[in-house]
Amino acid sequence: MRVVIGLVCVILVLACVVAQAIDSEGREDQIVTMHASITRIISYQGILKNGAGNPVSDNTYNVTFRIYNSASGGSSLWSSPSIPVTTVDGIFVTEIGPITLAFDTTYYLSLQVSPDPEMVQRQMLTMSAYSAVSDTANYAFKADTASNVPDNSITSAKIVNGTIQFGDIGQ
Asked: What integer pLDDT is reported at residue 16 of this predicted model?
């Protein structure tokens, strides 16, 4: 029985943490950047259907996931071990990973339901998976080197008391 896939939802959640360091007198004097060690996992939901387009019988199926950088052809950049997924009305939910790819280009996901061969059609991973490298986070960690701050955009209300040192002021 050949199995086909439909109804896919991809979710990837990653996090970074920024903390302020406090000196021995209780003053905030520097920003320390910490990167949380988050396992790069994608939650995946799908529906397995038979060749006639009907959901497969409720059962456990062994699925291998692969990630490519092209919609067809090429070699896989990442592959999961065979993962047992249990279906209810054909629907299953699983997690794949950890995935060590940079998520800085377009990737495509393929499935292989054992003993069938790998499915020809690949699914393009969408923006939720790309939150692994958020542009906003990239810029936030470089905020101390910003060179294009508009004139008159930093006001007294935006400056924490005691944070500007004498050496920061033009003499």
From this structure: 29
Distance CA 82, CA 91 (A): 18
Is the four-CA dihedral 148, 150, 151, 154 of positive or negative sign? negative
Closest CA to 88 of 45, 121, 123, 122: 45
Contact status, residue 125 vs residue 109, Cβ threshold 8 Å: yes
- Residue 107 neighbours by CB distance under 10 Å: 22
Which amino acid is located at 92 in the chain? Answer: F
Structure tokens belonging to residue 34: 């910490």
**pLDDT tens-digit map of 129-155:** 556 556 555 555 555 555 566 777 777
At residue 165, the 3 state secondary structure works out as coil
Question: Which tokens go with 151?
Answer: 């004139």
Cα 16 from Cα 37, distance rounded (Å): 8
